[in-house]
Specification:
mainly beta; Porin; two-stranded antiparallel sheet
Length: 375
């Protein structure tokens, strides 16, 4: 299948440290344990500008940790058609001394069963199926540039307390479904107890030769009271309460040959008119439409990405965002990269504190250069 769509767009722009460079610690009698990860460092600048006088600087040059990770992958062959598996992965700070324990996040932690005849079931803390199986062709940038999934990527109504199922591959067709549970225990709003919430997402995909088609949905219902995590905004990946309207998306990708692939995508979410009519802030409850077009070209040790997105929020001006990246594989374990992103956010009206309102541009060209060692 054209090397599986250029190895899924060069595996997220050379981003898979887990599978390719994993060190096998134990492999005997059908039981296997691998250790893998990466140390990634870079320098970035640009992006968000100061949005008001007196606010903290946001877009200056910075030496950064670029999502360094350490992971363990486990598996056990129960019989020729059934395999048990598990994975745990941590993020750690790779750019500076950290006396708080080092690890900043448990990124993944899940277990599951995989069968060629019956499919795969998994439970725990894993990425959004909608992101990994529908809009994944666009998730190729190391840092910024993924405009689908509300900019949340794998965090979209996922990453914890989740159960998922993927059917076997039926002559190119696969279906998938997952659910994330939000307990109401310990949460109260306006003095009232809250019920549990379950958000589901799912879809179908079809692959034939170099072509891959996928379509799906993700429920985006509220999962926290408004007071629990600050303000709500659909482009803030730290806050995934949702606007109580489903997200729908579809992508098509095609590998023309072993070097070049292209991708096209569309995603939409309706505004929650009921909440807006009831007095809710428009920016909190508005939907959007997003189109995306991109390509990946790989030759020798080099890979290149270029994407453009047309984002049309219901309550804001339409913007055209673009991203580009180049990646060079120095060796099987070491690569260097450079990325650019322009989100094309509009001007923001701010107050100077003396009653005068001014327009400030909230977005500059964002750049990132760096290197990664995979193990």
């Amino acid at each position: 299948m054209k090397k599986t769509l250029l190895a899924t767009a060069i595996a997220g722009a050379l981003g898979v440290s887990a599978a390719a460079q994993a060190a096998t610690v134990y492999d005997q009698d059908g039981t296997r344990l691998d250790v893998n990860g990466r140390i990634a460092l870079g320098i970035s600048g640009g992006g968000e500008d100061d949005v008001a006088p007196g606010e903290a600087k946001a877009g200056g040059t910075e030496f950064r940790n670029i999502y360094s990770r350490l992971g363990l992958t486990m598996s056990h062959d129960i019989d020729p058609d059934l395999r048990a598996f598990g994975r745990v992965e941590w993020r750690f700070n790779g750019d500076e001394r950290d006396q708080s324990g080092g690890f900043s996040e448990v990124r993944h932690s899940y277990i599951g069963l995989e069968s060629g005849n019956f499919g795969t079931v998994m439970a725990g803390n894993f990425d959004s199926f909608y992101n990994s199986r529908v809009v994944n062709p666009f998730d190729v940038y190391i840092d910024r540039g993924h405009e689908f999934s509300k900019g949340a990527g794998g965090d979209l109504q996922a990453r914890g307390d989740s159960i998922g199922y993927i059917t076997p591959n039926l002559e190119g067709f696969q279906a998938f479904l997952m659910a994330k549970h939000y307990t109401g225990n310990g949460l109260a709003e306006n003095g009232e107890s809250r019920s549990s919430v379950i958000n589901t997402q799912g879809g179908v995909s079809y692959e034939l030769a170099g072509l891959r088609l996928a379509a799906g949905f993700a429920q985006d219902r509220g999962d926290y009271p408004l007071s629990a995590r600050g303000t709500r905004h659909r482009y803030d990946s730290r806050d995934q309460r949702g606007i109580d309207e489903n997200i729908y998306g579809a992508t098509a990708s095609y590998a023309f040959n072993d070097n070049f692939s292209a991708r096209l995508g569309y995603e939409t979410q309706d505004s929650n008119d009921g909440e807006i009519d009831a007095g809710g802030a428009v920016e909190d409850w508005s939907g959007y439409d997003t189109w995306g077009l991109g390509m990946t070209y790989a030759i020798g040790q080099w890979a290149f990405n270029a994407d453009v997105h047309r984002v049309s929020p219901d309550n804001e001006d339409t913007r055209t965002a673009w991203s580009a990246g180049s990646y060079y594989k120095v060796s099987s374990n070491f690569d260097v990269f450079a990325e650019l992103n322009r989100a094309d956010q509009g001007d923001i009206t701010v107050s100077t504190g003396d009653g005068v309102e001014v327009e400030e541009n909230s977005d500059n060209l964002y750049w990132l250069v760096g290197a990664r060692y995979h193990f």
